[in-house]
């Protein structure tokens, strides 16, 4: 059974920079040796995340890249994909897009913004995952 984890942004350090939470999640996945696919909303978000992953922690190197930009992308533990770019299936998916991730994976992570209006679509996504039999978890970040 697949699992969906919802990370609700609440802490001040993530309120202004929600992609910092994505970096933290990517670091934990990297430390565990998990191949991770990050589904960015668009090219600009992918590039911002790429830059943040290089700079957010001086003591941690997270091998990552944007899908389609290099022939050796299967070696990167963290692969960032923009809509319309083919990306390989990976056991862990961090979904930043508007739709639920329904393809094959062991675990999908959903980042929930602090804005109450932005949370409503994610409540619907929770219901969708639940209807599909996903094991659901919620974490306040």
TrEMBL record:
Matches recorded under InterPro entries: DNA_pol3_chi, PolIII_chi_sf
The main enzyme category here is transferase
User: What is this enzyme's EC?
Assistant: 2.7.7.7
- One Pfam family, please name it: DNA_pol3_chi
One GO MF annotation is: DNA-directed DNA polymerase activity
Alphabetically sorted, this entry's keywords are: Nucleotidyltransferase, Transferase
In terms of NCBIfam families, this protein maps to:
PRK05728.1-2
Output this protein's name: DNA polymerase III subunit chi
């Amino acid at each position: 059974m697949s699992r969906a984890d919802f990370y609700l942004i609440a802490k001040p350090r993530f309120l202004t920079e929600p992609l910092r939470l994505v970096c933290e999640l990517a670091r934990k996945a990297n430390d565990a040796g998990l191949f991770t696919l990050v589904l960015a909303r668009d090219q600009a978000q992918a590039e911002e995340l790429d830059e943040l992953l290089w700079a957010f922690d001086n003591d941690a190197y997270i091998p990552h890249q944007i899908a389609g930009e290099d022939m050796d992308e299967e070696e990167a533990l963290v692969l960032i994909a923009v809509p319309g770019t083919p990306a390989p299936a990976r056991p862990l998916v961090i979904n930043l897009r508007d739709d639920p991730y329904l393809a094959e994976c062991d675990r999908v992570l959903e980042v929930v913004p602090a804005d109450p209006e932005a949370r409503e679509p994610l409540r619907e996504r929770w219901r969708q995952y639940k209807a599909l039999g996903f094991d659901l978890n919620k974490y306040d970040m």
